[in-house]
Amino acid sequence: xSEMKKDELAEDQALMGDEMLEAxxxxxxxxxxxxxxxxxxxxxxxALADAENIRKRGERDRREAEQYGGSKLARDLLPVYDNLKRxxxxxxxxxxxxxxxxxxxxxLTMKELVSVxxxxxxxxxxxxxxxxxxxxxxxxxxxxPVPGTKAGDIIQVMTEGFLLHDRLxxxxxxxxxxxxKS
Length: 182
What we know:
single chain; Nucleotide Exchange Factor Grpe, Chain A, domain 2; 2 domains; 62% helix
């Protein structure tokens, strides 16, 4: 009987060993599944964040395209404005009287151009003489010493500048005083 008990005991121990091995294998499998789950969750959260960033970037790009998409066209129309302005500024009173209808038409065309540009966010930058030179908005075309002015004061406006919303399309071209400070 003792030998039978020994065999049974050996069998029980073998079964318990197998069960323990199976339990260890199951525990290792559970840990592996948890690690895989955590990895998948991390990858999912990263993909979700990337998708949200792409959505926000696309929205920002769309808004910028709406606001600034016409900047090339607006920039190309600025010489038209300049030429109409030159035509009006350089005509003498006699010429204006002799061809009143023509000059009225040019004036109305210029006003309409400014109005249309304004509807699309284009604003003029018209510096005043005596105003301080701002390199963000003005382009210095020349410097000259003019008595009664301080260095950096605008002494002449050659062409107006233009903004598209908050972006500079073209700086105002100006002459700047170079008088040394007294």
